[in-house]
Write a structure and sequence with these properties.
It is built from four helices and eight strands, in the order αβαβαββββββα. The chain is α+β, with helices and mostly antiparallel strands. The chain starts with a helix and ends in a 7-residue tail after the last helix.
Length: 158
Amino acid sequence: MTEAELLVCLDALIASWESEVVEFKQASQDFDTNKIGQYVSALANEANLRGSNSAWLVFGVNDKTRQVVGTEYRREPDRLHGLKAQVSQDAEPSTTFREIHVLQHADGRVILMEIPPAPRGIPIAWKGHYYARSGESLAPLSLSKLDEIRGQGLREDW
């Protein structure tokens, strides 16, 4: 994506605000990698259930004020993109970000992590646990949602 496309994308995400497939974090200096993995699991599973092409974890936006505040999270490009490998190691089945976009916004650096939906019939776990969203919070993936994802494979007509 170009800078202009990223800006349009960010503006659209902020306008629609947090949902089951979008999470904003200030992440001013650092952010727990384990928590990122939980968000990847939750957002990927929710994107699958909602038929979304992508889910988003966005750093550098205050999740209370809806303002871009910038982030210093992993300033070095190699460290930032190394997050893909870190996530894929503990996600089951192995998955990671579709892309990690960095936007130099007028109000600060923003990181937009694009997460693909869980594959049809296969929920995404993080360190053996399945996650989902409950409003704006992380929660265990409920049995009904787990069954809904797993049942997708049964509906295929071969």
